[in-house]
């Protein structure tokens, strides 16, 4: 059976580029295939790549002699970044030695159908040269001042309406 990893509720969060960019993906698959790879793009050298994998369901009972599954992470240059052997699940975190397409390959030695949940997160913390400059913040500061004035207007209207309502309540009896 061919293993097909399909992204499940893929969440992508991107805020202001000078503050932070992160991409989060969740995959799950059921497979009897001995090997399956997932590719994930890491934009910059030094980005933090973290995640986990868990065998959540399997057709055979895992006894102490079951070999588990293997995961190998390979950099864009073809170098092995890390390897886990014989695991039913684990967490990982590493700094990308370079930007580019990373390969996460699962190996299932027995080839028995197993469902693997795989989560990956690529985070980028910008350096001081990529942070917002004062000229980037000027339009934001103007908008904040406009919102402050609008809020003050709403607050004043609320005070007026409360006083009026109190007067009407007092004069009612």
From TrEMBL:
Residues 35-122 form the GOLD domain. This is GOLD domain-containing protein. InterPro entries: Emp24-like (IPR015720), GOLD_dom (IPR009038), GOLD_dom_sf (IPR036598). Belongs to the EMP24/GP25L family. The keyword Signal applies. It is found in: Endomembrane system; Membrane. It is a single-pass membrane protein; Single-pass type I membrane protein. It comes from Oryza meyeriana var. granulata. It holds the Pfam family EMP24_GP25L. SUPFAM superfamilies: Supernatant protein factor (SPF), C-terminal domain (SSF101576). GO terms for cellular component: endomembrane system; membrane. Keywords: Membrane, Signal, Transmembrane, Transmembrane helix.
């Amino acid at each position: 059976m061919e293993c097909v990893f399909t992204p499940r509720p893929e969440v992508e969060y991107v805020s202001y580029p000078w503050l932070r960019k992160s991409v989060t993906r969740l995959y799950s698959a059921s497979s009897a295939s001995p090997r399956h790879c997932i590719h994930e793009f890491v934009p910059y050298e030094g980005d933090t790549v973290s995640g986990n994998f868990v065998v959540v369901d399997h057709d055979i009972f895992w006894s102490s002699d079951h070999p588990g599954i293997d995961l190998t992470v390979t950099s864009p240059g073809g170098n092995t970044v890390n390897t886990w052997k014989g695991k039913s699940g684990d967490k990982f975190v590493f700094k990308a030695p370079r930007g580019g397409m990373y390969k996460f390959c699962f190996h299932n030695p027995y080839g028995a159908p197993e469902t693997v949940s795989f989560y990956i997160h690529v985070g980028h913390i910008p350096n001081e040269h990529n942070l917002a400059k004062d000229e980037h913040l000027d339009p934001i500061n103007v908008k904040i001042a406009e919102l402050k004035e609008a809020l003050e207007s709403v607050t004043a209207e609320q005070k007026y309406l409360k006083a009026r309502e109190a007067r009407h309540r007092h004069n009612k009896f």
